[in-house]
Amino acid sequence: MKEVLVIGGAGYIGSHTVKELLKKNYKVIILDNLSKGYKASIDAIDPEIPFIEGDLGDTTLLKDIFSKYNIDTVMHFAALIEVGASVFNPHIYYDNNVSKVLRLLDTMRECKVNNFVFSSTAATFGNPQADKISESHSQLPINPYGSSKLIVEWILRDYAHAFPEFNYCVLRYFNACGADFEGKIGPSYDPAALLITVTLQAAAGKRPSIKIFGTDYNTPDGTGIRDYIHVVDLAQAHIAGMERMLKEKISDSYNLGTGQGNSVKEVIAMCRKITGIDFKVEETDRREGDPALLIADPTKAHTLLNWKTQYSLEDMVKTSWNWEQHKTY
Ligand SMILES: NC(=O)c1ccc[n+]([C@@H]2O[C@H](COP(=O)([O-])OP(=O)(O)OC[C@H]3O[C@@H](n4cnc5c(N)ncnc54)[C@H](O)[C@@H]3O)[C@@H](O)[C@H]2O)c1
User: Which residue, 124, 139, 286, 326, is most buried by CB atoms nearer than 10 A?
Assistant: First the structure.
């Protein structure tokens, strides 16, 4: 059985991917420094999963892991992800999200581990010039977080070119949200970052209101439109991407979304419908740097990965609401 090292597996998207990997009988080892993730998320899935608390920049530790386990693929989720913080602390973002990844890749080469799945982001596209963003869209990030992800994409491209035994799969997520259908794991960012979570916290009375940033965009209801994708759909795309990479020994990149957008007002309306609670909504000015529309063109992933999203906005809100009410971490 193939062994997969999931770095950042105690985080939101990593933990959901661990759960899907186990369902498909992959053997999983997790490395996470718990700077943002939760050991409780791993325990909720299966406390027997080998878990190593440590930093991805620790090459001695990485070599130990690669010698102890028969790792075939590394899935890399372990980034710092706050756009605003990246603007004020670019050095921390470039160190964690770029320098440490470079060290990881070189340690992988040294230890003959040649397959890499990388979490990238729609933020690499910056302010998009198309209604739906395909893989051929220009990548011009507008903040250090997006740049740090794009730099790694370039490093991967150059490594695959120079080292033919090395394969990568880059997955660019649009707006991940939702939670495990069994309610065992879910998002627990501090502070809460996802629109659905923040809205549901308003519904639960944990915050006084929800703010809409900008109601004068050139969209049907004036609010920003995003491509929301259920985290379980995303998790399954990792397995599809890894399996294509391993089977065809191919390096490639894919945009992952539903291909459909929902406006902020539509998300809020869905949260009202699911919770049955009429919470307070405040309309305020646009935030700098927020584009009107950000929607993936997922055709390439449909065609080459034989993967499609299954879950709706209603599923995203229902699973998030269940998690918000019963969360354990
Ligand atoms: N959440 C989204 O909507 C979204 C969208 C696009 C891309 N992504 C990408 O997906 C990945 C996972 O994001 P997430 O939302 O699950 O974030 P998260 O913060 O929940 O998970 C990241 C995990 O990595 C760990 N980590 C960070 N730096 C580490 C280090 N140096 N060594 C070891 N562990 C470390 C953290 O403790 C955490 O458990 C990131 O690479 C992010 O850039 C996320």
Answer: 124
pLDDT digits (tens, 9 = 90+) for 150-187: 999 999 999 999 999 999 999 999 999 999 999 999 99
The rounded Cα 124 to chain-centroid distance in angstroms is 13
Q: Which residues pair with 73 in a beta bridge?
A: 4, 115
Output Rg (C-alpha) for the chain, integer angstroms: 19
Give 74 Cα–ligand 1 centroid separation in angstroms: 14
What pLDDT sits at residue 191?
87
Quick one: which H or E segment has residue 147?
helix 144-162
Residue numbers in the chain where pLDDT is lower than 50: none
195-226+259-326, superfamily in CATH? UDP-galactose 4-epimerase, domain 1 (3.90.25.10)
* Residue nearest (by alpha carbon) to ligand 1 atom 29: 78
Strand (E) or helix (H) holding 31: strand 27-32
* Mutate which of 36, 59, 256 for ligand 1 pocket (most atoms within 8 A of beta carbon): 36
Q: Is the CB of 228 under 6 A from ligand 1?
A: no
